[in-house]
Design brief:
The complex is a heterotrimer. Helix content of chain A is about 20%, strand content about 40%. Chain A has 4 helices and 9 strands; from the N terminus they run E-E-E-H-E-E-E-E-E-H-H-E-H. In chain A, the strands form 2 sheets. Chain A has a 6-stranded antiparallel sheet. Chain B is α/β, with parallel strands linked by helices. Chain B is about 40% helix and about 15% strand. In chain B, a hairpin with a 2-residue loop joins strand 15 and strand 16. The longest helix of chain B has about 40 residues. Chain B is globular, with a radius of gyration of 25 Å. In chain B, about 60% of the residues are buried. The longest helix of chain C has about 35 residues. Chain C is α/β, with parallel strands linked by helices. Chain C folds into 2 domains: about 260 residues, Aspartate Aminotransferase, domain 2, CATH 3.40.640; about 120 residues, Alpha-Beta Complex (Aspartate Aminotransferase, domain 1), CATH 3.90.1150. A 7-stranded mixed sheet of chain C has the order 1-7-6-5-4-2-3, sandwiched between helices. Chain C has a 4-stranded antiparallel sheet with strand order 10-11-13-12, with helices on one face. A two-stranded antiparallel ribbon of chain C has the order 8-9. Classes of the chains: A alpha+beta, B alpha/beta, C alpha/beta. Chains in contact: A-B, A-C, B-C. Chains B and C meet through helix 1, helix 2, helix 3, helix 4 and helix 5 of B and helix 2, helix 3, helix 4, helix 5 and helix 6 of C.
Chain lengths: ~130, ~425, ~475
């Protein structure tokens, strides 16, 4: 299981990468993709949509399940990753490369964990 | 008498003992005594011989007319022998939804072929495996277009009243608004549509040909819908689709309709076959079953129910529709029908409808009092005036074993298909002449 | 095998219709499509073989045992189909003057009367085309009832967690919030949780009874009373009515509205997924809201009438008429005692199978079951690595349709078995023997179960690939194998 340092993590298994200028990218963690199994589809928001921390912003489907992605940040959706939408398997193969949503104008965030703390959190859960 | 129960009374006793109870009553111990009924207050069972006699007697109370000039959502078309035989095969009739793909390739492939044919017919990218009927398909289609920002469904007044009513019911359920776009000369008033539709519009729903048989300027209506950011949904007659501009050519995002004309009898209203096709971009919003192509572990091509995470059994309260079944046997019927007719046969059927309807319209409208009500081009239905109460004409024709056109406001809605011979049309015109005198 | 499109050869066609007997008149060019639809061009003998080949790759009730839980895959009597093919029914236009369709109206009237007797309801509509469609209609009646009373605060529908997936989807499609109520340790509704959940915002409760665990809720009267006292209405999902017809009636249990699956309980065929019928019955107070039109008796026979506060239509016309007709034929054939016998034997067969398996498989809720029971293979999966899927797929090699898998969701590694009353003791014994043999193989050779099925037309499918990159129609331009 991979927990790259330099990223922040939420307890609902999203990773957050600060890209400067009050913006960040989010995706799902290695732990999350492993739990979900083969991901077949991601349902992304539209650019311009509002993101509210702690609320559903997207969902991912496996063959027989659907799971919400919870936004760790409040702000505005600045971009979504169309490549991942076309190749959902990239979330399984490269979860930290497959960013999903870029959020700007960040006004608030959930409690975020460091890589070390998130690793410990996952070990507790698992 | 336990009619279809194989076990004998002796076997039942042994089985009860094996289960560890002494009577059937013990099996139902969980049901409170106060709820157990002594018996049903209805007749005892009958033999097959008696039931057949009874049901045949009931059927004889119906009048199956010799010639039929009525459509309005249910159409009298020829059903080839091959269609009836194939769709009676017990495997197709008695199977359930193809959950176990390994032993359901027949049903799955037939649906995949059906989906392909519906896409060919409408020119759109994806089709579902079918829904209940054309009216339900229309209601589900406009449901695909609604979201929080765009909640108002615009429907042309020229659609079949049963379709409009069904759309209204579904929208009432979803707390969504329906707004009706008025008519001009029997077709959708494009100027009115342009002036009433705004950024609250989810879609514009138009029927082609419309309820009065007239051909709508769908391309223009599509542009109006799109210019305010709404979707354009077309309800189409599938036979007319064989020759008319496709919904895709008219700019439709979704096309739907009832494929009853493809091999299903009128059968007093059902079972019929709702179909839905959409642009690729809207594929994930399609409700109901969808069959996709894949491979088995040996690499062999195979078919399977797919995109299931859209559906109610997985999304539960987050699903946009609760539909689970399709009308698989009816979809099979339509596929077989289209395979038997082929492209030439289908075009031939459609052209016969159009030519015969024109001949009939000319004959009927030449009679005083039965003039055509609208000037526009039509496919196989048209409205004429009626010089007297339309029910008088209806009765007069019924007396000659003819089901006349449907009385509608302002006159009579006639329908002519390949089933109506020249002789039948001439006979009809002759009787109308008598009425006119 | 090849698709019809791959068997197509240009120019293969044959006349079905006679030559045109009126002058040919074409529509103006500007209204016409650019190119014809690419439909298959095949000869009649090849079409016949194509579909026979497809039929052989389809497992129906006529092919073998089909214990698909909650689907009631009973024998579909052939008399039903013959009666539904009578030209006196198939040739009737739905908008014919009612006086020329008295037979059809009589069918609807008679079927309504009998089904009202069976369910303890006062009125019924046949317009809904399937169970889910019936649920939608039934919940709409509840909504219309509250709306008519001006009671706008009722925004929630209570759904137990053992419900069919359609129940919560139905409630939200009807504009309601869903409140899930858990099951108690015996598989019934948790009464404390239910009491907690109801209030003046409760529109109603949707309950499947017997539920998806095959259990008749012993607190049924208390459940419906709690909801009524809160001002809500009770909805009975009758998908599992086969267990109790002629034994007990939803109308006596405190339910206001019920849907029936005529294609389950009343023996009409499933057709590979439809057409079915989701008839909806209701108590007198909901009758004014039923979909329009309804059939009523008049002095010369039968007539149509629109209920005064109808919710409208949920589809065109009067539902799947030929399906309603088949159900009527079934009811006339069985009669009062026959229906009761069917229910009794459905429950007996389920218990007989459960008994035959309970020493080698874990039963989720042991005890007497109703028409179906649920096995849980959680332990087997942990200990032998054999899942519910593996057992189900192994059954295919024995020529049997597997039970419903992974449902209900509240049971892990679930197999839900419903044999129905139309299976003989020998068939049940054989199915028990097969499931026992598979269980023994789970100990001796679990690997062989992972590989199953071996003898089916295709083997396990790549469902992930199908969903990731959907191919939903034939590609005319591409290469296809």
């Amino acid at each position: 299981m991979d927990f790259p340092s330099g990223l922040s993590y939420s307890k609902t298994h999203e990773w957050i990468q600060d890209i400067g200028g009050g913006a960040a990218r989010i995706g799902i963690t290695d732990y999350a993709q492993n739990e979900l199994g083969d991901i077949v589809f991601v349902n992304l928001p539209e650019t311009g949509d509002e993101a509210s921390k702690g609320e559903r912003i997207a969902d991912v489907e496996s063959v027989k399940a659907v799971s919400d992605i919870i936004s760790p940040l409040s702000g505005v959706v600045k971009a979504v990753n169309k490549d991942v939408a076309d190749n959902p398997e990239s979330m399984n193969a490269d979860p930290y490369g497959a960013w999903l949503i870029e959020i700007s104008d960040i006004s608030d965030h959930e409690e975020l964990l460091s890589a070390e703390d998130y690793r410990a959190f996952c070990e507790e859960e698992g | 008498m336990a009619y279809y129960v194989p076990s004998t009374e002796a076997e039942q006793k042994e089985m009860l003992a094996r289960v560890g109870v002494s009577s059937f009553d013990d099996l139902f111990a969980a049901i409170p005594d106060s709820l157990r009924i002594k018996g049903l207050d209805m007749p005892e069972g009958l033999s097959e011989f008696e039931v057949r006699g009874k049901i045949e007697g009931i059927a004889r109370k119906n009048v199956a007319f010799k010639s039929i000039f009525r459509g309005a959502g249910a159409y009298n078309h020829y059903i080839p022998a091959l269609v009836k035989q194939i769709v009676s095969k017990e495997e197709f009739v008695t199977a359930y939804t193809p959950y176990q793909a390994e032993i359901s390739q027949g049903v799955l492939q037939s649906i995949f072929e059906f989906q392909t044919m519906m896409c060919e017919l409408t020119g759109l990218d994806v089709s579902n495996a079918s829904v209940y009927d054309g009216a339900a398909a229309a209601a589900e289609s406009v449901g695909m277009c609604r979201d929080r920002k765009r909640s108002v469904v615009f429907v042309s007044e020229s659609v079949n009243p049963a379709v409009l009513d069904t759309i209204k019911t579904y929208c009432y359920a979803a707390n969504a608004e329906v707004s009706v776009v008025p008519l001009k000369n029997g077709v959708t008033d494009a100027d009115a549509a342009a002036s009433v539709m705004d950024e609250s519009a989810a879609c514009l729903y138009v029927q082609q040909p419309n309820f009065y048989g007239l051909i709508e300027d769908a391309g223009k209506l599509g542009e109006i819908a799109h210019s305010c950011g709404a979707r354009f949904v077309m309800g189409v007659n599938p036979v007319a689709s064989a020759i008319l501009k496709t919904p895709a050519e008219c700019g439709a995002d979704i096309a739907c309709g009832d494929a009853q004309p493809f091999g299903m009898p009128m059968a007093f209203g059902g079972p019929y076959l709702g179909f839905m096709t959409a642009s690729g971009e809207m594929a994930r919003k399609l409700p109901g079953r969808i069959v996709g192509q894949t491979k088995d572990i040996d690499g062999k091509r195979a078919f399977v129910l797919t995109l299931q995470a859209r559906e109610q059994h997985i999304r539960r309260e987050k699903a946009s529709s609760n539909i689970c079944s399709n009308q698989a046997l009816c979809a099979l019927t339509a596929s077989v029908y289209l395979t038997v007719l082929g492209p030439d046969g289908l075009r031939g059927a459609a052209e016969r409808c159009a030519s015969k309807a024109r001949y009939a319209a000319r004959r009927i409208s030449a009679i005083k009092g039965f003039e055509l009500l609208y000037p526009g081009e039509f496919f196989h239905e048209f409205v004429t005036a009626c010089p007297c109460d339309a029910s008088v004409v209806e009765k007069r024709l019924a007396g000659r074993d003819i089901l006349g056109g449907l009385p509608v406001s302002g006159g009579i809605l006639w329908c002519v298909t390949e089933m109506n011979t020249k002789e039948q049309i001439d006979e009809l015109a002759g009787i109308l002449e008598e009425v006119s005198r | 095998m090849k698709l019809s499109f791959e068997k197509s050869r240009d120019g293969r066609s044959f006349p079905i219709l006679p030559p045109l007997d009126v002058p040919r008149e074409d529509l103006p060019e500007g209204l016409l499509r650019k190119s014809p639809p690419r439909l298959p061009q095949m000869a009649q003998p090849d079409i016949s073989r194509h579909y026979t080949e497809l039929a052989k790759r389809t497992h129906g009730v006529n092919d073998g045992f089909y214990p698909l839980g909650s689907c009631t895959m009973k024998y579909n009597p052939k008399l039903n189909d013959e009666m539904a093919a009578l030209p006196g029914f198939t040739g009737i236009h739905p908008l014919q003057p009612p006086e020329t369709a008295q037979g059809c109206l009589e069918v609807l009237f008679a079927a309504e009367r009998l089904l009202c007797l069976i369910t303890g309801m006062d009125a019924m509509t046949f317009q809904p085309a399937a169970g889910a469609h019936g649920e939608f209609t039934g919940v709409l009646l509840i909504k219309a009832w509250h709306d008519a009373r001006g009671d706008k605060k009722r925004a929630k529908i209570i759904v137990p967690d053992s419900a069919h997936g359609t129940n919560p989807a139905t409630a939200s499609m009807t504009g309601y919030q869903v409140v899930n109520v858990p099951s108690d340790s015996e598989g019934g509704v948790d009464m404390a949780a239910l009491r907690e959940a109801v209030g003046d915002d409760t529109a109603g409760l949707m309950l499947t009874n017997p539920n998806t665990l095959g259990i008749f809720d012993k607190n049924i009267l208390e459940i419906t009373r709690v909801v009524h006292e809160a001002g809500g209405l009770n909805y009975y999902d009758g998908a599992n009515l086969n267990a109790v017809m002629g034994i007990a009636r939803p109308g006596d249990m405190g339910f206001d509205v019920v849907h029936l699956n005529l294609h389950k309980t009343f023996s009409t065929p499933h057709g590979g997924g439809g057409p079915g019928s989701g008839a909806v019955g209701c108590k007198a107070r909901l009758e004014p809201f039923l979909p329009k039109p309804r059939v009523v008796r008049c002095k010369d026979g039968f007539a149509f009438s629109d209920p005064e506060r109808s919710v409208g239509s949920v589809k065109a016309f009067y539902g799947n008429f030929l399906v309603t007709l088949r159900a009527l034929v079934y009811m006339l054939t069985l009669g009062a005692d026959g229906l009761r016998d069917a229910a009794q034997n459905a429950v007996l067969n389920a218990n007989y199978m459960m008994k035959g398996l309970s020493d080698v498989y874990d039963v989720a809720y042991p005890g007497i079951c109703m028409h179906e029971f649920v096995l849980t293979l959680e332990k087997l999966k942990k200990e032998r690595g054999v899942s519910a899927m593996d057992v189900a797929k192994s059954m295919l090699d024995y020529g049997m349709h597997p039970p419903t898998m992974y449902f209900p969701l509240i049971v892990k590694e679930a197999l839900m078995i419903e044999p129905t009353e139309t299976e003989s003791r020998e068939t049940l014994d054989q199915a028990i023997a097969v499931l026992r043999e598979i269980r023994a193989r789970a100990d001796s050779d679990p690997g062989s179960l992972h590989d199953a099925p071996l003898n089916t037309p295709v083997r396990r499918l790549d469902e992930v690939g199908a969903a990731r990159h959907p191919v939903l129609k034939y590609n005319f331009d591409g290469v296809s194998d």
